Amino acid sequence: MAAFMRKLVLILYLSVFFCAKTISTLPIVVNTWPFTNATEAGYNQFLNGGSAVDAVEKGCSRCEVLRCDGSVGEGSDPDENGEVTLDAMIMDGETMDVGSVGCLRNISSAISVARMIMERTDHTLLAGELATKFAVEMGFKESDLSSNKSDMMYKQWKENNCQPNFRVNVSPDPKKSCGPYNPNAVLSKIQNREDKQVSYLNHDTIGMVAVDKNGHVVSGTTTNGLNHKVPGRVGDSPVVGAGSYAQNGMGGAAATGDGDIMMRFLPSYTAVQLMGSGTSPSNAALFSIKPIIKYFPDFNGAVIAVNNKGEHGAACHGSGIGTFHYSVMDNPDKVNLFSVKCV
Ligand SMILES: *[C@@H]1O[C@H](CO)[C@@H](O)[C@H](O)[C@H]1NC(C)=O
Ligand SMILES: *[C@@H]1O[C@H](CO)[C@@H](O)[C@H](O)[C@H]1NC(C)=O
Ligand SMILES: *[C@@H]1O[C@H](CO)[C@@H](O)[C@H](O)[C@H]1NC(C)=O
């Protein structure tokens, strides 16, 4: 009986995925969440003769300027010191070149700094204050990334005894008190992140994949990371294969959600490799998050996947998201929204 039920559930799943499989045309721009202005900005690059790299940079930039959902760009989600820092990456699936930046201070256009790292250095990842210095040398302007909103978030968090926060095994008790903290002599294993109220709303991001008419795939991300993060924290967004991944001939993928957990499983890399061996984008996205569920049954996260033909799909997990929406533009007329129910 149980076996029969399992089979039935499997068949239902498969039929849902079959129906969800979408055929698209090239060029195409796909991004996480209903950030449709970003999708348009990306697609407009193709209309104006730009490359897939231009599409991802300009698309993600649009979200930085609009401060999409408060989770992208300056002005929101301060760290424990009230400072806003940014993470971003861009990956060119033709050259397998990557530029990525973590914990970037005082520069608002993180995705453009990432592109500068890709195109003007032999490195892959720069971080922190010295990434700021690099950006300034390359012509970017420093500014204060905090805003009335981030100052207010910080103030309320302080008044609420610095709750929630991401410290464990320290004293004073981080569930009750603000820092500074010292390490406890005895380590107790704490895996339950739920009681830290990690909702997807305080740590999502834009992830984008663009494929030009010749199948050139580029992916990128930009975010201000997790609200009240420990200063110095770098999330999954700038980590290659975690935040996003692109490889010509296979496709591109990007992830959003609980980055601290997702980055341990390289879901974007997994999804792209699966598409490379013929798996549909929807199933590639699903299989990329399956191993995470096994270890972290409560995590919230989503992956979008686009193959080199422009077929796309997504998968998500967690009650914090419920239904995940993503934006697709494959024609000059309008952005289409797609949604998937989380598993
Ligand atoms: C998106 O762009 C439209 C104009 O194209 C504008 O009216 C709208 O306010 C923008 N959305 C956001 C969230 O800024
Ligand atoms: C950098 O950001 C901090 C706030 O995080 C601000 O106090 C400082 O003035 C900024 N520096 C510049 C040069 O804008
Ligand atoms: C930020 O707050 C200051 C005073 O607290 C106010 O003068 C200013 O207009 C506010 N700025 C915005 C953009 O709301």
What does this structure look like?
The protein has 343 residues and is an alpha+beta fold. It folds into two domains: 275 residues, Glutamine Phosphoribosylpyrophosphate, subunit 1, domain 1; 49 residues, no CATH class. Helices cover 31% and strands 23% of the residues. It contains nine helices and 14 strands. It has an eight-stranded mixed β-sheet. Strands 9-10-11-12 form a four-stranded antiparallel β-sheet, covered by helices on one side. A hairpin with a 4-residue loop joins strand 11 and strand 12. Helix 2 runs antiparallel to helix 3 and helix 3 runs antiparallel to helix 4. It is globular. The chain starts with a helix and ends with a strand. About 4% of the residues have low confidence. Bound molecules: 2-acetamido-2-deoxy-beta-D-glucopyranose (NAG) (3 copies). The site of one 2-acetamido-2-deoxy-beta-D-glucopyranose (NAG) has 2 residues, from loops. The site of one 2-acetamido-2-deoxy-beta-D-glucopyranose has 7 residues, from loops.
What descriptors fit this protein?
binds 2-acetamido-2-deoxy-beta-D-glucopyranose; Glutamine Phosphoribosylpyrophosphate, subunit 1, domain 1; 343 residues; alpha+beta
User: What is the CATH architecture annotation of the largest domain?
Assistant: 4-Layer Sandwich
User: How big is the Rg?
Assistant: 20 Å
CATH topology of the largest domain: Glutamine Phosphoribosylpyrophosphate, subunit 1, domain 1
Q: Determine the fraction of residues in helical runs and give it as a percent range.
A: 25-40%
- What is the ordering of alpha helices and beta strands? HEHHEEHEHHEEEEEEHHHEEEE
**Which of globular, elongated, flat, extended, rod-shaped describes the shape?**
globular
- Euclidean distance between termini CA atoms: 23 Å
Q: How are the strands ordered across the major sheet? A: 4-3-2-8-7-1-13-14
- Describe the largest sheet: 8 strands, mixed
Please identify the top-level CATH class of the largest domain: Alpha Beta
Q: How many alpha or pi helices?
A: 9
CATH superfamily of the largest domain: (Glycosyl)asparaginase
Q: Which small compounds were modeled alongside the protein?
A: 2-acetamido-2-deoxy-beta-D-glucopyranose
Number of structural units classed as domains: 2
For the residues shown, what is the average pLDDT? 91
Strand content: 15-25%
Low-confidence stretches: 8-21
Structural class: alpha+beta
How many β strands by DSSP? Answer: 14
